[in-house]
Here is the input.
Amino acid sequence: MKKLLSGLLTFSIALFYVSCEDEATEPVVTYDSFSIQTVMTLDAGADANAEIVRMVPGSETQAVFVSSAINRLTVIDYTKTSFSFGKTYDLDPGSATAEMTSLDVSVKIGGENYAAVCVAEADCGKGKIMFVRLSDGTVVKEVEVGYNPDGTAFTKNGTHLIVANEDDREDRPCKPADRMGGSVSIIDLSNGVENATLLQDYLVNWDDESEPEHAETSSDGTVVVSVQETSQIMIFNVADVPLSTGKYKVVDLPLSATEEAAEPDGLFISPDGKHALISSEKNGTLQMMTLPDGTLLGNPYIIEADIPAPPYNIDARKSKKRTEPEECSLVEKSGKLYAVLALQEAHGVIVYDVTDPAKPVFDSIAPAGDLTLDADVGMEKSTIGSEGLAMHPTNGVAFSANERQGSITMFTASWARD
Here is the structure.
């Protein structure tokens, strides 16, 4: 018996030693940079206006984009080395003067991912959200929102949808003179997407031009909304809706070093919910802020100095909107935080290390669009127009939607190529 116990003990120790040795010899791969590279570009239709693209939450192989000119949703099927267009859903926005301007995709709700599609009326009527089941393209619900919805975001738990209604007087001169600013619509999904209801359409009317452009959410319920023309960020929590004065904060963005106003467009919240990235199109900057307090970190960082032009484009005719950063994302890898931004006038996607959020450090840039069709180095308005951006939170794959050219470009980070 003693010999048996002794033998078992010796065998157990040997197994433990071998196991520990195997674990010790497994290399831990770290990545010192993002090092973005272009993979490929596909034609999505020259006159289709491929405008906004989103990853499908919970998927490693699918994204979806909206083509605003033809009211179409297209599913992207991808690997880490290529992509193709999968299912397409041609939707009826309800009138000849309506267009699908943006979208977001939910986590799985009742086993399904849903696309929330913003529909704006060009004739100054109120807009709506179309909820589309991604598995088969069925429109399961429509909810009326404010005027000219231009950006939307599901909460991370799928209980609410936030909609930024721009109601831009410049784009819609039929807007009445006494209607100020825009609004933020909050849709309740707690009883299921098929039973979605408008909880509130909160007027953002403190200025004639206080026009919400985009919205993002974090897992703790924090919501950030870019109020573009007045260069402001609105912050609140879905736990505090319905909104009223005192339940939200407004942060004024500073001028850049060139004395240009910000006019924020894209927003994104870091995976830990502690920071927001602000992409400002007018002065061509990025800036980080802490959440939920809204403290701005560092100075607005002017992107143009990091863009080699040519081969990239800069609209040199103007003192503003020369690079026009649009949609953006934040992604973590190997202890570093990266900001990824689509540049509408520079036909590129640019990456910064923002591990120190007050001091962005240029990492890399890669071209978007099919440059065999559009050389796009005229130093005027870009013919490619990279506006939409989707970045997977872990696998290193990103897409840009190039509205003017009508194309989709795929990119990878260094860890996607290993």
User: Anything to note?
Assistant: The longest strand covers residues 139-147.
